[in-house]
């Protein structure tokens, strides 16, 4: 399977690039915004293309042409304002979904946020971010694409353990970015994740088994 990775220069995205290279079961085309990012990826042996989530869905679709799946792990980041949260985490995700439809790509994996589906559990200081994730997820669920929505807990830079808890509703928890990336790749191979949305935190179950038992 050829995967179009949106957000390849982000912290989860970089881990995904590395794990795709190690895994070897799928190939990846990385979407980035800057020429120097493209050059760095190509130098490491990864196909890369320049496109922008603030551009048009058609631009993104053209960049994704020929791919079999889209993984959306882009985010505006904690240092930007609510305007970028709206433009990237919500509208950018909506454009990526439109792009998948234009390009005829049916498989779509979205990285969301723990408890994005439950308004009553949103962190007060991050409500705009959670709202963006909440509605991006809803757009994907209504799209007709074959989706997987992964809602990871607090993201850590610790080495992954390969052990997680995956369920429709996990109130709190954290997880390494390594394990989030591994869960994305495992989801591509596990049909049980199709048209599923779930919370993901560190746990005691191997990733493949946790996804199979959703």
From TrEMBL:
Pfam families: NAD_binding_10. It comes from the Bacteria. Transmembrane segments: none annotated. Coiled coil: none annotated. Residues 7-190 form the NAD(P)-binding domain. CDD domains: SDR_a5. InterPro entries: NAD(P)-bd_dom (IPR016040), NAD(P)-bd_dom_sf (IPR036291). Gene3D superfamilies: NAD(P)-binding Rossmann-like Domain. PANTHER family: FLAVIN REDUCTASE-RELATED (PTHR15020), UPF0659 PROTEIN YMR090W (PTHR15020:SF50). This is Epimerase. It comes from Bacillus atrophaeus (strain 1942).
């Amino acid at each position: 399977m050829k995967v179009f990775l949106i957000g390849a220069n982000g912290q989860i995205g970089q881990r995904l690039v590395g794990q795709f290279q190690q895994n070897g079961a799928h190939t990846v085309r990385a979407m980035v915004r800057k020429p120097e990012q493209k050059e760095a990826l190509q130098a490491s042996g990864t196909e890369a293309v320049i496109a922008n989530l603030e551009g048009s869905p058609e631009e993104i679709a053209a960049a994704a042409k020929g791919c079999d799946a889209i993984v959306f792990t882009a985010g505006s980041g904690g240092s930007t304002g609510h305007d970028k949260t709206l433009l990237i985490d919500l509208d950018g995700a909506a454009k990526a979904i439109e792009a998948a439809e234009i390009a005829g790509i049916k498989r779509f994996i979205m990285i969301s946020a723990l408890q994005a589906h439950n308004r009553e559990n949103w962190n007060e200081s991050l409500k705009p971010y959670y709202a963006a994730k909440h509605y991006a997820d809803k757009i994907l669920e209504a799209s007709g694409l074959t989706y997987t929505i992964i809602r990871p807990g607090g993201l850590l830079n610790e080495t992954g353990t390969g052990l997680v808890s995956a369920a429709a509703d996990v109130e709190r928890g954290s997880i390494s970015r390594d394990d989030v990336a591994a869960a994305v790749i495992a989801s591509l191979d596990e049909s049980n994740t199709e048209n599923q949305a779930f919370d993901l935190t560190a746990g005691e179950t191997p990733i493949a088994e946790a996804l199979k038992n959703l």
